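User: Modeling request: complex.
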Amino acid sequence: MEFTASQIASFIDGKIIGDENALITGVSPIESGESGHLSFIAQDRFSHFLDTSKCSVIIVSENLVEKDNYNPTVIAVKDAYLSFQVLMNLYQEMQGRKEGIEDGSSIHDTAVIGDRAYIGAFTYVSEKAKIGEGTQIYPHVYIGKGVKIGKNCKIDSGARIYDYCIIGDNCVIHSNTVVGGDGFGFQPTAEGFRKIPQLGNVIIEDDVEIGSNCSIDRATIGSTVIGKGTKIDNLIQIAHNVKIGQNNVIAAQAGIAGSTTIGDWNQIGGQVGVVGHIKIGNQVKIQAQSGVNSSVGDRETLYGSPAISYNDYLRNYVHFRNFTEIVKRINNLENTSKDHTNE
Amino acid sequence: MEFTASQIASFIDGKIIGDENALITGVSPIESGESGHLSFIAQDRFSHFLDTSKCSVIIVSENLVEKDNYNPTVIAVKDAYLSFQVLMNLYQEMQGRKEGIEDGSSIHDTAVIGDRAYIGAFTYVSEKAKIGEGTQIYPHVYIGKGVKIGKNCKIDSGARIYDYCIIGDNCVIHSNTVVGGDGFGFQPTAEGFRKIPQLGNVIIEDDVEIGSNCSIDRATIGSTVIGKGTKIDNLIQIAHNVKIGQNNVIAAQAGIAGSTTIGDWNQIGGQVGVVGHIKIGNQVKIQAQSGVNSSVGDRETLYGSPAISYNDYLRNYVHFRNFTEIVKRINNLENTSKDHTNE
Amino acid sequence: MEFTASQIASFIDGKIIGDENALITGVSPIESGESGHLSFIAQDRFSHFLDTSKCSVIIVSENLVEKDNYNPTVIAVKDAYLSFQVLMNLYQEMQGRKEGIEDGSSIHDTAVIGDRAYIGAFTYVSEKAKIGEGTQIYPHVYIGKGVKIGKNCKIDSGARIYDYCIIGDNCVIHSNTVVGGDGFGFQPTAEGFRKIPQLGNVIIEDDVEIGSNCSIDRATIGSTVIGKGTKIDNLIQIAHNVKIGQNNVIAAQAGIAGSTTIGDWNQIGGQVGVVGHIKIGNQVKIQAQSGVNSSVGDRETLYGSPAISYNDYLRNYVHFRNFTEIVKRINNLENTSKDHTNE
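Assistant: Request completed. Predicted assembly structure:
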């Protein structure tokens, strides 16, 4: 990364206050600015950094600009946060996509690789798999038989996509995530547990992002489904036959047990557990570490294990924190009551 | 997969009602049947699908068959669920096992590979490792020094089996699971934590299945043990020197801390935590998200963090949910008591 | 491993009681000693094993030695536990480090590999990466662009170190851990979530150990930091822009949400969750499964979800366990009160 203040101002249509030739080679958070770096200020509470930051160039929301001379070069824009995002997206695009098939990958003769795709070294593509145009598959990925991956996806190093799973367009699957491992299904017998074959697959719709080290199990029969636009963080368990709708956000280390159905636009917190065979509606918020053990209607907010209404949980938890005092009050009442009875 | 109704009926000794030449090429859950697919009905509450399903062939428990003509071809059997399982197992066997050593694997000269084993591309087998007959090791697996793996195992892509670990017969280890990583052992000193060497191993007995992305740590000295027939789901932590008995079922994201001993036939729920150095008996059930912090006798059922008896937890949690009301009642009692005292 | 009792005694300056030629080929915990193995006894409660153990050689703290003849060969030392540690460290050093670049690795022309480093087969090193002297990188590791790894590190099979991350000296990163995956940052829009580019990196300081299957996300801008000497167990989530200080110990399956700052010498239990954007001081202890949702001062001990003082939690939880009895007492009081009122 090497840009001048004037190049940056031109990307985001900003007004330069200071040296238009100031050179930046990196980006810093405003709290820990470095010389030669770019940062941004979009809120008044960070304005004081305009006088103290070591950054060479700072993008600032124009309503926060009060002087016509600062130590760093200032680029004034309408909304510094948005302009900074635009810039970061531009920068990421400039990095370029990888293309071509690297030496040392193993691709079956019957696999079909789209135009401008990238297949990294040590990646294994099984028979009849199909990789879409412009999709980048990094080194050490395993692609099973008959897997279909859409266009412009990015599959990071060490991800495993098992047989017959289907991934849409514009998806990102991070490192070491396993899509399509066997569901956890065993039939108890007197001698032990007998495995129930897991013959379904996983379908991941367009625009889904899945973090690192997740386990998304294949359905027993039919499909485990992750709906369009849903974003899944790291270390998450999605069990067999779960159906997740569109535009959900699921935070790290959450787990969804088998055959549960989840609607659209829900927010599921970190380390949440959801039992199997229930239905969660739309626009539900589940607080971190909650345990959801029954179906949930639309627009509810939940907390606790087992999860109840968020407000109820917090209100009751206040009393839990005072439980020792409350028990003392009961003791006092009993003593008073005895006194009365003995009167 | 391509079978006729009559082929399927012959596998499971069923009676055909309808077109014996109906062709199936896949399997659907009964709730989302597709033309050309097979499904099954074993419970009365699904019987209505006999009239509405798009499936071409449905296996039905004979007591649920009421007409002699349905839209799909019906195969009547005694127990549709069991027959369907038999069929799925047959189908999975037909898929065949992989055999042979793929180009691009790296196998040390001193390693011993059994007959009919499969070693995938990019799999690394270290010195003196021993792989049993018919065992399938998929691409990108790491097998350390002196590791012994029994017969007819399946080790999925990206699993890591570290030095001197031992795996029995008929085991399945799913993708990206790490067997035999160092236990978490450090000695505090004034300057920081000093690593305690972890020189033991992991022993996995016959018929064990371990899901994806699990961490099973090696013992400090001696062995971490997973007993015969135990089934472990995804993203599970088994710390150093843990001993787990036979036929346990452990659900996703549970964690067992160091040196704890677990008996036979226990059911441990998802996201459960068990502290170190305790003993859990046999046939214990631990509810999801519980935290077990002391030893547990046989046949107990537990819930909560710290875990107590399941029934006690639920009974007390009902009061927790009404805690605000309960405190109001105490307020009222205090007011009444004051009135009395002031009388 | 093959040593005589006299060789072992010479390493740890011990006094032999018994056969100085007794040969050991392995190590056992004292509870499950095996013939031909070495063990140790440092506490009185294990002294009875001196008479019953099958071990061939036992290192014993001299104050526990009472006879001049035992069945196993005894090596008397001042502190058997310490001597055993010394021995295990010696043994591990004898195993030797791996060196050299194995066939089948893929190393970019512009990468720099230090003296005596080991690069395993199927490991991928990207452009301009720099690997320090004596660092061992096992098979199947992915090293991104511009990554810098210090001296004498060990990176286990299947770890992924993404672009521009920096790792200090003497670090250990276990199998399948992902360092520098994208942080979980999305901007909600009416149509769905738009990805916020994650352009920072991860900095891991000297002497850090990270277990298997962890996810340490890169910062949005700036750096996610793991401080010197901090030890992290398995299956742990460290979100973007988290800053962790020195000499912390974090147990398995804990998760730290984005932008949280953690001081020095803290102990964070298994399955703990810490919310984003808070500050945790120094020498704090957080009990397993707790959920920390606000900033924490120095030297506190916490428990519960949301976490409160450890003692308060336990004291109040005792009442929770008796909640049904407590409600009965309130019922009685109300009945008595009614009687009084009706008097």
